[in-house]
């Protein structure tokens, strides 16, 4: 009960960011960059072990971003700066409405046929397993988020007439990857699905701000809240069907450094009951930020699987005490057995290399208190005492 884990990304050490820049400018080789990455991953692994997190990640230190890395690893995608795609007045206004870090973000855009000549994240898993004996989590971009981000009405059209045609090839690649990750010992595979999470802000005829931006960037059409939600669930179910391993779907409201008023807001009740049709083992949800609403979203709808409960607000620099975290977890006990509750931060601490939402020290101190909270909760809710 109350297993502790992370959502994935950590702020990169300064020297790793500098090494990456040196690689992109041709000053160091890929092999040299890999040495920096290996060192950085060892550090973040040891840090998670030191504070006592049980199911750990490699900090996503080898990736440009949680999403962008498919532009580096999967054939058919290319990383394109958002500032280059944002040419229309609509795009400019959508970027302002979100205070979106357009100069930092590069999107993976489909510029060819999608295939998997080499694995996406298997190298990350194998290295991680070589440096820790703890259970490990690997996150991959979820298909509905890729659907919205990757198909472009001009650049992708020669290869796929529509995002629907494109996404089937991505799901094929994703399923091959998930199968290999489980075969080689991944304990947890997580699909990151902010495009679905952002629907909490959408109406039937009015897209959320993130989709408004992507329509302006990519020329994708919003088909209405109900159809979008159904599409998200269908694509995820296609991706996860038949796997026996632990697959979680992380449904968040996006993760970029901006003042609160620019960030997406709304409770999960908006996505129910469709969200609960997902054939995943765990829902990895935000619940520390007040923007995520109340756990009472589960009052009238039952989720039989696990919940990865967000108990750490990644964007708020204030370090939660163990007592505050215990209280957050206890709210979930109204609707979930302790055995079904995992503790994790709301989201990653740095979903992309150039835009951390926290510092390395704050992130670690927050995790340290999350582990302490788990110990308190385990004492309090031991099966024998219930
Ligand atoms: Zn997230």
Query: What percentage of amino acids are in beta strands?
Result: 5-15%
Number of domains: 1
Number of helical runs?
13
- Judged by helices, strands and strand pairing, the structural class is alpha/beta
Question: What would your notes on this structure say?
Answer:
Helix 12 (322-332) links the parallel strand 9 and strand 10. The strands form two sheets. This protein has an eight-stranded parallel sheet. The chain has helices at residues 14-24, 30-51, 70-73, 82-85, 89-98, 122-131, 143-150, 163-183, 194-197, 209-218, 225-240, 322-332, 360-380; strands at 3-4, 55-56, 75-81, 106-115, 135-141, 188-192, 247-251, 282-285, 306-312, 341-345. The protein is 39% helix and 14% strand. It contains 13 helices and ten strands. It has one domain (3-68, 113-142, 162-203, 224-385): Alpha-Beta Barrel (TIM Barrel). The protein is globular. Helix 1 runs antiparallel to helix 2 and helix 5 (89-98) packs antiparallel against helix 10. The chain is an alpha/beta fold and 386 residues long. The structure holds zinc ion. Zinc ion binds at residues 7, 194, 250, 252, 255, 347-348.
List keywords for this structure.
386 residues; alpha/beta; TIM Barrel; eight-stranded parallel sheet; two-stranded antiparallel ribbon; binds zinc ion
């Amino acid at each position: 009960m109350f297993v502790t884990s992370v959502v994935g990304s950590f702020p990169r050490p300064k020297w790793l960011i500098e090494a990456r820049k040196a690689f992109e400018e041709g000053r160091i080789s890929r092999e040299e960059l890999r040495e920096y990455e290996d060192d950085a991953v060892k550090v973040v692994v040891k840090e998670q072990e030191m504070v006592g997190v049980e199911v750990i990640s490699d900090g996503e230190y080898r990736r440009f971003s949680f999403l962008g890395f498919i532009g580096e690893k999967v054939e058919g995608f290319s990383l394109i700066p958002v500032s280059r795609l944002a040419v229309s007045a609509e795009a400019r206004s959508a970027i302002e409405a979100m205070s979106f870090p357009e100069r930092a973000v590069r999107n993976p855009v489909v510029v060819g046929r999608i295939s998997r000549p080499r694995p996406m994240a298997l190298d990350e898993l194998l290295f991680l397993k070589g440096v820790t004996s703890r259970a490990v989590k690997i996150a991959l971009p979820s298909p509905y988020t890729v659907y919205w981000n990757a198909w472009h009405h001009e650049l992708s059209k020669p290869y796929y007439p529509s995002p629907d045609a494109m996404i089937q090839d991505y799901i094929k690649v994703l399923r091959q990857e998930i199968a290999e990750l489980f075969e080689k010992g991944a304990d947890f595979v997580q699909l990151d699905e902010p495009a679905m999470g952002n629907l909490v802000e959408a109406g039937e005829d009015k897209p959320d701000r993130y989709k408004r931006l992507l329509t302006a960037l990519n020329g994708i059409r919003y088909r209405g809240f109900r159809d979008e939600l159904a599409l998200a669930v269908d694509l995820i179910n296609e991706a996860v069907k038949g796997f026996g391993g632990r697959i979680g779907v992380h449904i968040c409201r996006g993760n970029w450094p901006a003042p609160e008023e620019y960030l997406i807001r709304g409770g999960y009740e908006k996505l129910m009951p469709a969200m609960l049709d997902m054939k995943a083992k765990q829902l990895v949800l935000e619940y520390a930020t007040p923007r995520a609403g109340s756990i009472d979203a589960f009052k009238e709808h039952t989720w039989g699987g696990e919940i990865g409960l967000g108990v750490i607000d990644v964007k708020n620099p204030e370090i939660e005490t163990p007592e505050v975290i215990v209280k957050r977890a206890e709210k979930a006990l109204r609707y979930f057995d302790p055995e079904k509750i995992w503790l994790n931060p709301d989201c990653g601490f740095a979903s992309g290399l150039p835009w951390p939402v926290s510092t390395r020290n704050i992130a670690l101190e927050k995790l340290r208190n999350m582990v302490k909270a788990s110990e308190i909760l385990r004492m309090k809710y031991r099966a024998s005492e219930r």
